[in-house]
Amino acid sequence: MLDIVIFTLAGRPVLLIDFISSLLGLTCVFLAGRNSKYNFWVGYLYTAALFLLFWNRNLYANLILQPLSLAINIYGHYRWTHPKPEETSDGKSLNVSQLSWSERLICIVSVLLVAGLWGLTLDRLFPADPHPYLDTCVTVLILMAQLLSALKKWDCWIAWLLVNITQIILHISVGNVMMSIVSALYLINGLWSLLTWVKLYRKNNHA
């Protein structure tokens, strides 16, 4: 079932699991950008689909990250629906907030440090990887964006935009048309979501 080809794009086969994963991922971030808590329910399905996708392609480094992504998703689901009294305006959902400049610096240093150490490890264990440091930097940045989203920091969309731009470049460089299009859709949604969350932040802090 995982190897079923549903159509071809620019001469490259698109598998059913690729299509399902892309659809779930786009739905998840669209709902998150609209400040909907239902993005987490879709996120659970998305994590499961990615697990199957990476398993099918023997991408075990990415596969083992899915439990961590699932844990962040569960944590975010709880934080969004169980805010502290000072973190909510309606008593039900977590308000959008932002990082301080010192917190932003910590996030940047953490991503670069973890990605550098991880990239060095991959470079020594899997020397065939042409972009070990770029791959790990993007992966760590994704995890950081997920964590910031779980905390409902509008800064998360800055991280997502950096991820989307990098992935578009990577997919174009290897001729992966399908994922280039999907990444472009993520980028458009990220820009829209950033504006939406900033407006929500300003509304909550000027109410």
Structural class: mainly alpha
Mean pLDDT: 85
Please give the share of residues in helix: over 70%
SSE run: EEHHHHHHHH
Unreliable runs, pLDDT <50, ≥5 residues?
Answer: none
- Order of strands, main sheet, comes to 1-2
> What's the alpha carbon Rg, rounded to whole Å?
18 Å
DSSP strand tally: 2
Provide a descriptive summary of the structure in words.
This protein has 207 residues and is mainly alpha-helical. It has 2 domains: 1-94, no CATH class; 96-178. It is 71% helix and 4% strand. The protein has 8 helices and 2 strands; from the N terminus they run ββαααααααα. Strands 1-2 form a two-stranded antiparallel ribbon. The protein is globular and about 50 Å long.
Question: Keyphrases for this structure?
Answer:
single chain, 207 residues, mainly alpha, two-stranded antiparallel sheet, 8 helices, 2 strands, 71% helix, 4% strand, globular
Describe what is shown at a glance.
This protein has 207 residues and is mainly alpha-helical.
Write the layout of secondary structure elements.
Layout: E1 5-9, E2 12-15, H1 16-33, H2 39-56, H3 60-63, H4 66-81, H5 101-125, H6 132-150, H7 156-173, H8 177-205
Antiparallel strand pairs: 1-2
Helix pairs in contact: 1-2, 1-8, 2-4, 4-6, 5-6, 6-7, 7-8
